[in-house]
Design a protein that fits this description.
single chain, alpha/beta, 11 strands, globular, binds zinc ion
Length: 279
């Protein structure tokens, strides 16, 4: 969005900070086996983020399938390593990505293939001395690996992971399941039970409104579109109640405009709870 407006990438953290925002997910979603940003440019972005106290994450290539044919898995691993290398250059704390597809396999077989490949990527990342965390994301379509249970298991079994929850995807894959505050709260509590309080509180989140069909996600929508869910205010209630400190990335088509709305909503919820507790 900023690039469309003509801003240079290293200026983006300052522009976000001026809008009152403090996180940026760099989109490396069309990358192949090599970083599509120079080390110098990535380091400039990282330095600007640091000065403006903006937390960086990186969204890795969409062309990943860790449960595909052998050549596909090997190419996917190279793409993940390329993304992780660039993430390290810019000081991104997590590399978010989609793990794979069930394809013609049994779901459990595809999941286990992803798990094994992820362990190998994790080992390679440590061998290269990269500190960025691996962030497999909860997915929105029924043919994609990445249910909440699967993502939790990746976090339990693979070293150097960060929990990434896309709430819109979870709403879509369960056909509009996030209808009230309790629906959000029960997800946070399930995560807490399996991964502990700190992981739950510090989850990396994607949020937007979402349109879905029987297979799940169709498209992301702005927060103002009343006919679509989920409602960010409900998540904000849970964030406040459980004293969470998530990194929240807005994936609506209105990126920073909606991100600001989300921030304002959370601040309102926090304030109203605080004033209630004082009465
Ligand atoms: Zn994603």
């Amino acid at each position: 969005m900023f690039r469309l407006m003509g801003a240079d990438l290293p200026d983006v953290p300052r522009l976000l900070r001026e809008e009152g925002l403090d996180a940026l997910e760099y989109e490396a979603v069309r990358w192949g086996p090599k970083p599509q940003i120079t080390q110098e440019h990535a380091e400039k972005l990282g330095a600007a983020a640091k000065i403006n106290d903006v937390r960086l994450s990186l969204h890795g290539s969409y062309y990943i399938n860790l449960s595909g044919k052998r050549e596909v898995v090997e190419a996917s691993k190279r793409r993940l390593i390329a993304s992780a290398t660039a993430a390290e250059w810019m000081g991104a704390y997590v590399m978010v990505f989609h793990t794979g597809f069930y394809g013609r396999f049994e779901k459990d077989f595809a999941f286990k293939a992803c798990l094994e490949a992820l362990k190998e990527v994790s080992a390679e990342i440590r061998r290269l001395g990269l500190k960025v965390k691996l962030g497999p994301e909860t997915m929105g379509r029924n043919f994609q690996v990445g249910t909440l249970d699967e993502i939790i298991t990746f976090n339990e079994e693979v070293e150097g992971t960060q929990l990434v929850v896309d709430w819109a995807h979870m709403h879509a894959i369960h056909h509009g399941a996030l209808k009230n505050v309790e629906d959000f709260r029960s997800i946070a509590e399930k995560i807490e039970q399996r991964l502990g309080t700190e992981t739950m509180k510090g989850m990396h989140c994607h949020f937007s409104k979402i349109e879905f069909n029987l297979q799940g996600e169709r498209s992301h929508h702005p927060l103002t579109e009343a006919r679509y869910g989920p409602d960010f205010r409900m998540l904000a209630e849970v964030i406040a109640d459980l004293q969470m400190h998530p990194t929240m990335i807005c994936e609506s088509p209105l990126l920073d405009v909606d991100a600001r709305k989300m921030k304002e909503t959370l601040e309102q919820v926090l304030e109203s709870k605080q004033s209630k507790s004082l009465n």
